[in-house]
Amino acid sequence: MRAGSVAVVVTEEIGVPSWDLYELSIPCTVFGKPQTDLADPWYDLRLCGTGTADRDRSATGGGLSLRTPYGLDDLAGADTVIVPSVPDACVEEGAPLPRELIAALCRAAAAGARMVSLCTGAFALAEAGLLDGRRATAHWMHTAQLAERYPKVRVDDSVLYVDEGDVLTSAGLTAGLDLCLHLVRRDLGAHIANQLARRMVVPAHRPGGQAQFIDLSVPARDDAGLTPVLDWARAHLDQPLTVEDLARRAAMSPRTLYRRLQAATGTTPLRWLLAQRLARAQSLLESTDLPIEAVGRLSGLGTANNLRHHFLKHTGVSPGDYRRAFPARPPRAVADPA
Q: Most exposed residue of 43, 80, 143, 199, measured as fewest CB within 10 angstroms of its CB?
């Protein structure tokens, strides 16, 4: 796997309103800053304006001026195309999206680009017909309009992001960051994605199925009951762990633990444990030459067959194929406590 080129669509005619700057800055931060100590080459990022008259002219919107030498024709040559947002008028008032943009998105998809939307960018992918028959999401404030306007799209208003392989969509704001880190994880592996997330001081991995409606994305560091037990569980993933074990460690009832963990992370204790174990397995597959049986045991997923089952279900590839796809670091042996 490789980083490749990323083209980010910017609606040049209207400029970039201040409230859309966050979605635009996410791909610029994740893909635009070279991280050659993690992967060399890093991504090649291009901001592609929708203006057709003078690509080098400045466009303003909400106090922002944009100047880019790239236009819609450059989308077709990219490995990944990202639409961070569309004008509010196109969402709230049903104003038409630029036909040149829709045509360019169709050409890029036909050329084999991976198509991605953040927040209201899903309206552009839907208008291009790229979401027909697919599951997709957007910010929960706009999913009703998306579903009504594009009935062929299977809109899910409850998740952070949806990965349909060659087409991916996310909810708004921080969920867009989750999706971009998910792309890095797909392209370059869990280790590099985790290192990048650490540099950005954000959670390394929030599964796409996590709910949009949560009180906290991660437990508060001053939560004396929940945070220590989750840290303890991460350090003991190779051991059999149950909800009762975690509740006992946290000195609370299983029902209280269940409620507090779901409120804090949007997922259940068992699903949280499975996500942590899969992340551990990915890290071991990338950074060690341990046999599959040992990876299953150390990650807490049990037998090699059980590891393969969960890995295929949640990543779409087998553990062996995953290891072959991410040979970025020389394998090293680690202690395997039998």
A: 199
CA–CA dist 215, 63 (Å, integer): 32
Burial of 125 (0-12, 13-18, 19+ CB in 10 A): buried
Examine residue 331 and say whether the peptide bond preceding it is cis (omega within 30 degrees of 0).
no
The amino acid present at 249, given as its one-letter code, is R
Q: Partners of 169 in the beta sheet?
A: 117, 162
Q: Which amino acid is at 195?
A: Q
Q: How far apart are the first and last CA of the chain?
A: 32
Provide the residue count of the chain.
Answer: 338
Q: Which domains does the chain have, with CATH numbers?
A: 5-195 (3.40.50.880), 214-266 (1.10.10), 271-325 (1.10.10.60)
What is the rounded distance in angstroms from the CA atom of residue 99 to the CA atom of residue 289?
51
73 Cα distance to chain centroid:
26
Cα–Cα distance, 189 to 181 (Å, whole number): 10
3-state secondary structure of 205: coil
Provide the whole-model pTM.
0.69
In 167-241, which ranges are continuous DSSP H helix?
Answer: 174-188, 190-200, 227-235
**Residues 229-288: tens digit of each pLDDT:** 988 999 999 999 999 999 999 999 999 998 888 877 777 899 889 989 988 998 898 888
**H-only helix segments in the chain:** 21-32, 88-92, 99-110, 121-127, 143-149, 174-188, 190-200, 227-235, 243-250, 254-265, 269-287, 292-299, 304-315, 319-325
Residue 97 is inside which H or E element, if any? none
Contacts of 291 (CB under 8 A, 6+ apart): none
pLDDT digits 0-9 by tens, 211-227? 554 433 344 443 456 88
